[in-house]
Specification:
single chain, eight-stranded mixed sheet, 17 strands, 299 residues, 9 helices, four-stranded mixed sheet
């Protein structure tokens, strides 16, 4: 029987926010991945990096954003692959797990560069904020002071897609495009890092599309997505069509930068192939979501 291909997008709750938390969190995440492997799936894992990236940007303020992305991909991947390897061996499953530092091309003319929205780094004083602006960086006022903001351009191409596909076809568990990938722009034969953050869910959707996956499994903080969130008429979404999902998006049911990109990624993935589905649930219900016993399922 043909094994199913899944792209699993881990949210930040699956990784913790500090090094000790991450060590514990990846062990829990590894059990979920092992469950899916045991269920007959070939898996590529993407992951959030928001807390880790923010700390790196604070501790290594002189490092370019692309370098911080690469560092976070490396050390999160290191913890994840070792935890998954150990969990698989514990179950008698012999399967290599590899992390690929993944560069993702963005369009230098993307409108997002004129409208930065992603908060990064620590809270700044007025003097520090002025210094950042003198360097040409964007800063915004927050409740506690000031924060730097950067663009969130859409992913256009995954540079290492052939390597990812080769490892997946060889039966490995692959960790790739962590934190949305390292944002780069092509200049001749060179790739140069971009001062940006790519939305992780959009990169996950593009990766699933390029791999011709069967399922995009997005693990977030809720078991099911809600309509009218926090209101008296709040309603959980079970299995819905793409047309329904588009209608809810048009009705502004999903928050930008949170649930909205998950639906954007999921719909795009489904529409660009046959017999595909997107499942949105939390990590505790990942296996049940995969078997369509819970979660919000778009088909």
């Amino acid at each position: 029987m043909k094994r199913k291909k899944i792209v699993v997008a881990l949210g930040h709750k699956a990784l913790g926010t500090t090094l000790p938390e991450q060590k514990a969190a990846v062990k829990r995440s590894a059990k979920v991945i092992a469950d899916l492997v045991a269920a007959g799936a070939d898996i590529v894992i993407t992951h959030s990096n928001a807390p880790q990236f923010g700390k790196m940007h604070t501790d290594y303020s002189a490092a370019p954003m692309s370098v911080c992305s690469a560092m976070s991909e490396g050390y999160i991947g290191y913890d994840l692959q070792n935890a998954i390897r150990a969990e698989l061996l514990r179950r008698g499953i012999f399967k290599t797990t590899s992390t690929i530092l993944t560069q993702v091309e963005v369009d230098p003319y993307d409108d997002a560069f004129n409208n930065p929205v992603k908060l990064i780094g620590r809270t700044l004083t007025k003097e520090e904020a002025d210094a950042e602006e003198e360097k040409g960086n964007y800063v915004t006022k927050t409740e506690d002071g000031y924060r730097r903001i950067v663009a969130a351009p859409k992913p256009q191409d995954i540079v290492e897609i052939d390597s990812i596909r080769l490892l997946l076809d060889a039966g490995q568990v692959v960790i790739a495009a962590g934190g949305g990938g390292i944002p780069v722009m092509e200049q001749g034969i060179d790739l140069h890092g971009a001062s940006a953050i790519i939305e992780k869910d959009l990169s996950s959707g593009l990766l699933a599309q390029e791999l011709n996956a069967d399922t995009l499994l997005i693990l977030t903080s809720v078991e099911k997505v809600s309509l009218n969130l926090g209101q008296d008429n709040e309603e959980y979404l079970n299995t819905i069509s793409v047309d329904d999902a588009k209608k809810y998006m048009a009705d502004n049911q999903f928050a930008p930068g949170s649930m909205l990109p998950k639906f954007e990624a999921g719909i795009s993935f489904i529409e660009k192939g046959d017999n595909r589905r997107t499942i949105i649930t939390d990590i505790a219900h990942a296996k049940d979501g995969y078997f369509e016993k819970t979660g919000t399922i778009i088909k």
